[in-house]
Structures are given as C-alpha cells and as structure tokens.
Amino acid sequence: MNRAERALRGIAEDLDEIGAAPWTLVGGLAVSARSEPRFTRDVDVAVAVESDREAERLSFLLAQRGYRILASVEQEAQQRLATIRLACPGSGPRGVVLDLLFASSGIEQEVVSQADSLELLPGLVVPVATRAHLLALKVLAHDEDRPQDAADIRSLLERCGEEELEQARLALELVERRGFHRGKDLQGDFARAVARRTRR
C-alpha cells in the first residue's frame, strides 16, 4: 500500500463524515482501479457542487480537520472555482496532495452521479469514476510534458469496449458544449488516440 492509498482511507472518511457534497475518485488512483495499477502521490476527487460557495465551504471544513490549502485554480472561461489543492493532515513537503475538482471539466455532476462503488483496499469502498469518464478527463487534461497522461489514455483505451468509447466521446462533447475544453480540439484528440489504439 503506497502513501496515496493510505491517505485515501482518511480522505474518504472525512468527506463522508462532512457530507457537504457527493464525490467520486478520479485521477491516478481511479485509473489504477479501472485499468493498470500505477504509482501516484496525489488523490484526485471530483465533487458535485452547485456553486463556488459550496466548494469553498467544503475546503473550509477540511481545513478544520487539518488539511492545508496549497493553491486554487480558476476556470477562467466560465468564471468558476475549478480546483483546490490541499496537503493532507500530517504530510510533509513531499506528502500526499488532495485535489478537489469542482468545475475543472464541466461534467463533474455526471462523473459523480454515474460512478460505481469499488473496494479499493480491504474494507474501503469508495465511489470511482467510470472508465469512460476517466478517459474523457484524461483527454482533457493531457499535456505533452506529462508522459503519464498518454500512458493512462493508452491503458484505459486497451480496456474500453465500443460502448465505453462512445460514452467517452459524448462526455467530451459535453465538455466542449459547456465551454470547459481549454481551447483544445477534444474530439480530434480523442479520435487520434482511438486510431492509434486501432493500429497497435
């Protein structure tokens, strides 16, 4: 069990006890659960909130439990609080980081509502985003300077059936329609990733 997995147990307990908003696991730990296990020192959580006020309230309640707010990111196109990054309680400078995604992709509500509960560790059942949503989020987040993004996309694509690919495409369409695409050609990026998988 790595540090992120150990931290996840405490994070899940805190989020459930606070009960401020529904949430689901995304990011590296979710990709590990849905495809190929891999190392990560971050815990990424999508949170379904109706407003920035709700997002700020959850962050404040976590701070009262020992989390330290490290940074916040605005979604400039939509004037929303996209992400808040927190250091987990008791973690040092290289400790586990918790990223709360409130309006990073514009589909947080769908990601949370369609998640499945999985037992990631003995006795720890948490909501985990679907493979299709993880693929869509990875295509949105993909950065050429982060090789792990491309590796995650390949790993997810290898395990996606045709129905999941269509669900991912529709999710990306929704991201674009809501204006959260960050200037990227998400449909084109997705089509190219699928084509590369087909050629392998």
Describe this structure in words.
It is a single chain. The chain is an alpha+beta fold and 200 residues long. The protein is 48% helix and 21% strand. α5 (131-141) packs antiparallel against α6 (147-159). It starts with a helix and ends with a helix. The model has no long low-confidence stretch (mean pLDDT 94).
Summarize the structure.
By secondary structure, the chain is an alpha+beta fold. 48% of the residues lie in helices and 21% in strands.
Task: Furnish the topology, listing elements before pairings.
Elements (H helix, E strand, L loop, with lengths): L2 H16 L4 E4 H8 L7 E6 L4 H12 L4 E8 L4 E8 L9 E5 L6 H6 L2 E6 L2 E5 L2 H11 L5 H13 L2 H16 L8 H14 L1
Parallel strand pairs: 2-5
Antiparallel strand pairs: 1-2, 3-4, 4-5, 6-7
Helix pairs in contact: 2-5, 5-6, 5-7
Which properties best describe this structure?
200 residues, alpha+beta, Beta Polymerase, domain 2, two-stranded antiparallel sheet, 7 strands, 48% helix, globular
